[in-house]
Write a structure and sequence with these properties.
This protein has 322 residues and is an alpha/beta fold. Strand 6, helix 2 and strand 7 form a beta-alpha-beta unit. The two termini are 28 Å apart. The protein has a single domain, classed as TIM Barrel, CATH 3.20.20.140. The protein has a six-stranded parallel β-sheet. A three-stranded parallel β-sheet has the order 3-6-7. A two-stranded antiparallel ribbon has the order 1-2. It is globular, with a radius of gyration of 18 Å. Belongs to the metallo-dependent hydrolases superfamily. Phosphotriesterase family.
């Protein structure tokens, strides 16, 4: 009698419940915001108010599901960023697109004083683990990723280092992966060193906003170490042109690291929505991926970057398990 080895089913934790990773047949947006409030100094543009903008967000995602098969959005609004888990549930149900919620702390200017001031790494870790295991507040919505855990500059500040260490320890305790915010692409190597020093495997780390850093050598070092390299601000031309993003991504692919790339648009202001004249969540599919195809990137590599890589990252699977 032949025994067929049993392979445990890998599950994603979404805002509406567990989802089998194998059920994702279309692309994933690896770093987005659907409900957000980054207004600290009267910058009302840096808001995605679910009461005002939620319907437009749902319509955009539903249209992308119909046109491009969008299956999942990784929503990286965390503590201190105006996170709204109940709005994420509504958007997921209205759009038919699964959503993964996040926990952690953004970079220092957005740290809630009550969370970070005087708190040890152990205390911060406890806060994150409790949220992951019991849900966000009274909503019952459980985060499925740690992020976007942030720093700014070439090295994290002391509070940022504490929050990053706490994220690594919470990841080890719960099995979730960590997605970072590297301000304008800087400091990614320092983030990776800090997280791995805590014992977190590189393949469970995604270093954010690397498409804002015009330094292919850094991208290669991150990928060679085993971390994911996020080209996640596609379409944000005021920060970096898509032409430069394309060149940087092609260099990473040519170096043999397609299995380390994650792609997204990081919609973080309501003016980026299609309904307000912006490029929207679909710019990746409508503009950037066609440019990759024109440059000679085949459909298998595009599927790798937009579906298999983010699925593997979220489940904490190693590349050998793809």
């Amino acid at each position: 009698m032949t025994t067929i080895p049993h392979t445990p089913q890998r599950l994603l934790r979404t805002v509406t419940g567990p989802l089998a990773a194998a059920s994702l047949t279309g692309p994933v947006l690896a770093h987005e915001h659907l409900a957000l409030d980054l207004d600290r100094q009267g910058d009302a543009a840096s808001v995605l108010d679910p009461r005002q903008h939620g319907p437009a967000v749902s319509r955009e995602l539903a249209a992308l599901r119909q046109e491009f098969g969008l299956c999942l959005v990784v929503e990286l609004t965390c503590r201190g960023m105006g996170r709204d888990p109940e709005a994420l549930v509504r958007i997921a149900r209205e759009s038919g697109v699964a959503v993964v919620a996040a926990t952690g702390w953004y970079y220092e200017p957005f740290h809630p004083r009550a969370d970070l001031e005087g708190a040890s790494v152990e205390q911060l870790t406890g806060t994150l683990v409790q949220e992951i295991e019991q849900g966000i507040g009274a909503t019952g919505v459980r985060p499925g990723v740690l992020g976007e855990v942030g720093s700014h500059g070439d090295t994290p500040s002391e509070p940022e280092a504490r929050s990053l260490r706490a994220a690594a320890r919470a990841a080890l305790a719960t099995g979730l992966s960590v997605s970072t915010h590297a301000q304008l692409g800087h400091g990614g190597l320092a983030q990776l060193d800090l997280l791995t020093t805590e014992g977190l495997a590189p393949h469970r780390i995604c270093v954010g906003h690397q498409d804002l850093l015009d330094d292919s050598a850094v991208h290669r070092r991150l990928a060679e170490a085993g971390a994911y390299v996020a080209f996640d601000t596609v379409g944000k031309e005021s920060y970096q042109s898509d032409q430069v993003r394309l060149r940087l991504l092609l260099a990473l692919l040519e170096a043999g690291h397609a299995d380390r790339a994650l792609l997204s648009c990081d919609i973080s202001r309501h003016g980026y929505l299609l309904s307000e004249g912006g490029k929207g969540y679909g710019h990746l599919f409508r503009s950037f991926l066609p440019a990759l195809r024109t440059a000679g990137v085949d459909e298998d590599l595009i599927d790798l970057m937009t579906r298999r890589n983010p699925t593997r990252f979220l489940t904490g699977a190693s590349p050998e398990e793809d």
